[in-house]
Structure formats: C-alpha cells, structure tokens
Write a structure and sequence with these properties.
With 297 residues, this protein is mainly α. The protein has 12 helices and no strands. The protein has one domain. Helix 10 runs antiparallel to helix 11. The longest helix has 35 residues. The chain is globular.
Length: 297
C-alpha cells in the first residue's frame, strides 16, 4: 500500500479530534433535549465508513496510485512555485469533487452508489462518515487530469484527505450561520444542511466540498430558508428495519427493477444514465421536474 507520512499524520491527528467533537455534540444535543443521534444510525455510519475505507485501501494497493502515477509521469505542465502548486492543487481538487458530486446526483447509476450518504433521516457529525461505499472504484478518474497537470499522486491523495476533513465538519446542526464573507466563499453547515434535505426546493443543491463558489457559478446554489426547515433523508424513506446490505444496495435493486421492466433498449440506458426519478411515462419525476411543478411552471 502506498501512502504518505503526511496523510498518516492527518489520520492520527483527526481521529481523536473527531472523537472529541462527536462526543461533545452528543452531550450538547442530549443536554438541549434534541435527538440528533441514535445508536442504530451512528452504527450504520461507522459500518459504511469502514466498508468504504477498506475498499479504498484495497484499490489503492492494486492500482489507484499506479494509474495516477502513470498520468503524473506523462504530465503536460510542471509548476515550480511551491505556493502556487499547493494553491492550485486545492482549487483543482475541490472543483474535481464538485464535478464528481454533481454527476453522482444527476446520473442514476452513480446515484445508486452515492445514495447511502443521503439515506439517513438524521444529520450530525457522524453523517459525514456515512460514506458512498463504492466511490473509490471510480473516484481516481476525476484526479487523472490533475495528475496530468503535474501534481504528484501522493499530494493529490493528501489534499483529498484534508478537504474531506473539512467536508465532515460541516455536518452539524449546532452552527446556524457563519459570517457573511465566509458564507459567500466556503461551504458552511447551513449550505450542507440544504444538500442533505429531501425538500423539493433543496434537492441536488450545494454540491461543493470546501468552496461554495462552484455552486454559485454553475447554478446549483440554494440558501437555507428560515420559512422552509430542512427535512433530512430521501424523498422516499427506507424501511425502519434494514440489514446492512440493504443500506448499500437498495437503489441498485430499484434500478434493476426499472431496467428489467423496460422493453426499450434506449429506455434501459436512460434509466441508468438520466437523473434519479426519470421515467419514460412521467410516472416518477426528477428533482428538476418536481421543482418546476412546485414553482407552478
């Protein structure tokens, strides 16, 4: 397995930090009489992050770093200035995450992977660990252009660890609003609460990991509205009792049913590639279609 001492350092520092923060949030929410945590959901989140981490390590050992190393060795750009190097790496990686995240929401076959991160009706710091288990299978594809631009694979993985740490911290209900300038540039808990909402107005919004500027630039930004409290989870909730495999594979099963019952090859492909909710007869609707209905268009 290839890893860097910097990534190991991030892991060693972040684990006790997470434990303290999560423990503090549990104590605070219980003290305030708010049921932000349940044992079942927290256990699910732990199971999903361990499953994702194990697959990530296995793929990294086999080919993840190797593929990125090939791209880096065939780089088309070389950046000498160390400050420019790290600043650009952060921007490029955050943008790559935005693109990946948007595709995860707009293409059903990728949504089937990502849906686990959204399937909880709770929202707390452990939700940040509710990983999309099979995402490591294809995530490296989004990093290939970055490696071709001259960024070392271990630096790419290290930066991903840093940005992911920030992405976990915005999964909280206790921080209502950050200062205006911060809300304008960075992803905040208010932005990310919207992202985890099942409200039609909030669906497929605020895709950024660290920077909210991508959402503002590309039309996926939505502010949290005082008049519309967030309802967490999916538009169709999972059954209360579910085994661990159902948590991961339930959308794959629904997708297989839709593909099987369609007699048209084109429609079979559309079920896989169009946004979640697409149907040839309009019996189910995408988030964009639901939003049009909501707005009276």
């Amino acid at each position: 397995m290839q890893t860097s001492s910097r990534e190991t350092w991030v892991l060693l520092c972040s684990v006790p930090f997470y434990v303290l923060l999560i423990g503090g949030e549990i104590l605070l929410s219980n003290w305030q009489g708010k049921k932000y945590y349940s044992f079942k959901d927290t256990l699910q989140n732990l199971y999903l992050t361990l499953s994702n981490g194990a697959l990530d390590l296995a793929l990294r050992s086999l080919f993840y770093i190797s593929v990125l190393s090939w791209a880096w060795q065939n780089q088309v750009v070389h950046i000498e200035n160390i400050y420019l190097y790290w600043a650009l790496l952060f921007l490029l990686e955050d943008f790559a995450f935005y693109i990946e995240h948007r595709i995860d929401h707009y293409c059903r076959i990728f949504w089937a992977v990502h849906v686990t991160h959204h399937s909880s009706a709770e929202f707390n710091l452990t939700t940040g660990f509710r990983s999309s288990v099979f995402q490591p299978v294809y995530r490296f594809v989004y990093f290939l252009p970055i490696a071709l631009m001259g960024f070392h694979p271990l630096d790419i993985v290290f930066m991903y660890s840093l940005t992911q740490t920030y992405g976990i911290l915005v999964h909280t209900r206790h921080i209502k609003k950050m200062p205006g300038w911060f809300e304008a540039v960075f992803v905040t808990p208010a932005h990310h609460r919207v992202h985890h909402a099942s409200n039609v107005r909030y669906l497929d919004k605020n895709m950024g990991m660290c920077l909210i500027i991508w959402d503002r630039l590309f039309g996926t930004f939505q502010a949290e509205l005082p008049e519309e409290p967030v309802v967490y989870g999916l538009t169709k909730s999972l059954p209360a009792k579910q085994n661990p495999l159902t948590v991961i594979f339930h959308e794959w099963r629904s997708l297989a049913v839709d593909v099987k019952r369609s007699h048209s090859l084109l429609n079979k492909l559309k079920y896989m590639l169009m946004p979640p909710g697409w149907s040839p007869d309009g019996s189910t609707k995408t988030a964009a279609q639901l939003r049009k209905e909501l707005n009276g268009h």
